[in-house]
Specification:
By secondary structure, the chain is mainly alpha-helical. The chain has 25 helices and three strands. A three-stranded antiparallel sheet has the order 1-2-3, with no helix packed on it.
């Protein structure tokens, strides 16, 4: 038998076992997650900026700018952002544990803004563009750690996956937005607009609450309760609805303190960290960032039947539209099916792209197949956006024990961005030296390995509480 009590904002249901279930609107959790992800929009715009900017500053168009970059300089302009992201991600977990997720996120608006202003004011100085890209990268790396961490900690278990995929969804919106701006606006205009968004993020996110998990870890129980009351649409006066959740957070923190922080030599923790780093490895080396950074050049090389700038907008639109799939299904069909759909689909897409470039490089008549590069890359970015691109970021926070979540997230994102640098720096070199056919063939092989990794190693976390996930990692990989 169950009993219930209803007030103006929430409904408390107590079952026979004594557990309390809370029925309420989850709107505020979505609002807080979306506003946190305005920082992610800044990351997406920064990632995609090179696609419209590099052809202009390399004199591949009729537009004449004071700034000019050689092929080598252009590759550094692309790859200095992920280098900055590696550096920015490393201290992010420590700072988040000391100062709070919300506060450090707000601090990142400054390097975002300063980086864009350095680029805007660079005139003919490529070195100043280098510094600007590196500075933006610092903020990108830190926000890539902090936004998924914040969203995971404010979310109830039933919507944790949905809030988690907001990161990649908004990232792709930022990419599409930059592609559109870069296609229709002058260089200085789309760069200035990019610099305005960190200010918008700061002003919008400023009033959002701190993570309840962080507040409990600092023994700020009243502030944690106020945060939960706002996030769960509780009443503005003392409301016992939040008490079971507060108690669970306290118990979790005390258990973490008793174990003196889990060691990597603990088998369950080692498994979780190994899975996280495996996902981060394949998430970057599937080649998605190379397509985003060099999309215009790829379509120019392919001889696509459409104008390259229009092709990039189609790619950006595919990125955004594809994200509706995990947004509405990740908490229903699970993580593993979406990851497998993603890696298998990417394998076939890259295989077709490899074959196309092989025939083109060897002098075959491909005039009737000029639609294939765009079609293959649309399918490729679509399937990756359904699984391998968004899911690893929030699965870090799901799989890793609470006591070391901040540090492991920082190391994992640094590893992730190191792979981004490796890929973006090597991709144009590989295309020139071994050809686009072999380059895409290598990426295809990596996607095959990613499929095997997901099949064998990655557990399903759908609908499981943090305690259940930790128990699962202690017993089995699957």
């Amino acid at each position: 038998m169950t009993t219930s009590r209803e007030d103006t904002k929430s409904l408390v249901i107590c079952d026979d076992a004594g557990y309390t279930k809370i029925g309420h609107s989850k709107t505020r959790q979505h609002v807080a997650a979306i506003l946190a992800n305005l920082a992610t929009l800044c990351i997406g715009m920064a990632n995609a900026w090179t696609a419209p900017a590099l052809p202009l500053i390399q004199r591949q168009t009729d537009v004449i700018l004071p700034l000019y970059a050689t092929e080598e300089q252009a590759s550094w302009i692309s790859s200095l952002l992920p280098i900055g992201a590696v550096v920015g991600a490393l201290p992010a977990g420590y700072l988040a544990d000391k100062l709070g997720r919300r506060r450090v996120l707000l601090m990142m608006a400054l390097p975002f803004f300063l980086g864009w202003m350095l680029i805007v004011l660079a005139a003919d100085s490529v070195t100043q563009v280098y510094v600007g890209r590196f500075t933006i990268g610092l903020a990108c790396g830190a926000c890539t750690v902090l936004v998924p961490l914040y969203n995971e900690e404010i979310a109830e278990d039933s919507i944790r996956g949905k809030l988690g995929v907001y990161f990649d969804f908004v990232l792709n919106i930022g990419i599409l937005f930059m592609y559109v701006l870069g296609s229709y606006l002058p260089y200085l205009c789309f760069t200035l607009i990019s610099g305005a968004f960190p200010v918008i993020f700061y002003a919008s996110f400023y009033r959002m609450p701190e993570s309840p998990t962080f507040l409990v870890s600092k023994h700020l129980f009243l502030e944690a309760e106020k945060s939960l009351l706002w996030l769960r649409n509780g009443s503005i006066v003392y409301d016992t609805d939040t008490q079971p959740e507060i108690m669970r957070l306290i118990v979790r923190m005390r258990e973490a303190a008793r174990t003196d922080r889990p060691s990597l030599f603990n088998m369950s923790t080692f498994k979780a960290v190994a899975i996280v780093f495996g996902l981060m490895f394949f998430q970057q080396l599937d080649g998605m960032n190379a397509v985003i950074y060099y999309s215009v050049q790829i379509f120019q090389e392919a001889g696509s039947s459409l104008e390259p700038t229009y092709c990039t907008m189609i790619i950006g639109a595919a990125l955004v539209l594809a994200m509706f799939v995990p947004t509405f299904t990740v908490d229903k069909i699970g993580r593993r099916p979406l990851l497998l759909l993603s890696t298998i689909g990417a394998t076939f897409s890259l295989a077709f792209l490899t074959i196309y470039f092989y025939f083109k490089q060897n002098g075959f008549d491909i005039e009737s197949w000029r639609w294939l590069p765009l079609t293959s890359l649309v399918i490729y970015v679509t399937v990756l956006s359904m699984g391998l691109s968004p899911l690893p970021f929030f699965m870090v926070a799901e799989l890793v024990p609470t006591a070391i979540k901040g540090k492991v997230s920082a190391y994992a994102i640094s590893f992730n961005r190191s792979n981004t640098f490796l890929l973006t720096k090597l991709f144009p070199y590989l295309v020139i030296t071994i050809g686009p056919d072999r380059t895409f063939g290598i990426l295809c092989c990596l996607c095959i390995l990613a499929t095997l990794f997901v099949s064998v190693c990655v557990p399903e976390t759908k609908g499981r509480s943090r305690e259940e996930i930790e128990l699962m990692m202690e017993t089995s990989l699957t």
